[in-house]
Design brief:
The chain has 181 residues and is of the alpha/beta class. The protein has one domain (18-153): 3-Layer(aba) Sandwich (Rossmann fold). It contains 4 helices and 9 strands, in the order αβαβαβββαββββ. It has a 6-stranded mixed β-sheet with strand order 4-3-2-5-6-7, sandwiched between helices. A 3-stranded antiparallel β-sheet has the order 1-9-8. The longest helix has 19 residues, at 18-36.
Length: 181
């Protein structure tokens, strides 16, 4: 497995370096603050991919908020999406709360749709979503993110929270796998 991971990393194309990501996060921070600063929001970090972006946003959002996690997966250690698996639901009561779901990527939108639906079923007052990356697809998505850092073409991505078979989340840039991978 490690040989495959090394090969994927060596042959990948850097799409956005750390500086570009930081600029995108700064833009998102301003937009989120303008919309949510006076709403006592609950930020839901979508595990595992949302860890990096959530951590960065938390350092920059200078207003009262609370944090919890949500963990819904379609990929596991695969590179194609499958069934939606609920791994962890928030422990915080969502009733009458303004919720901001933070995730690494909006791909087909199925996972984000389920998370938003769950929050609404739990009687959240309002549900927003923020993603570091919105992937451009040739088909429509069931949901759109309210706050988007970067847009990318349709590639399999890794780095900055996004993984390749569970690896490479820790890279400081966003990379596209070589198409034959």
């Amino acid at each position: 497995m490690l040989e495959e991971i090394k090969c994927v990393q060596q042959n990948a194309q850097l799409l956005h370096d750390h500086d570009a990501i930081e600029q995108a996060i700064d833009k998102m921070t301003g937009q989120i603050a303008a919309e949510l600063a006076d709403k006592n929001p609950l930020l839901l970090c979508a595990l595992k991919g949302g860890i990096m972006i959530t951590g960065q946003l938390l350092l920059k959002l200078n207003f009262p908020l609370t944090v919890d996690v949500i963990n819904v997966s379609r990929y596991g250690r695969e590179t194609t999406g499958g069934e939606i698996n609920w791994l962890q639901k928030p422990s915080t009561d969502l009733a009458d709360r303004t919720v901001l779901i933070i995730d690494d990527i909006l791909d087909e939108g199925l996972t984000l749709e389920k998370m938003i639906e769950y929050c609404r079923q739990q009687k959240a007052k309002c549900v927003y979503s923020a993603v570091l990356v919105d992937k451009k697809l040739s088909k429509s998505k069931p949901v759109q993110a309210d706050f988007v850092g970067l847009e990318v073409e349709d590639h399999y991505l890794f780095g900055y929270g996004m993984d390749y078979k569970g690896y490479l989340r820790n890279l400081p840039g966003i990379y596209a796998c070589q198409e034959s991978q």
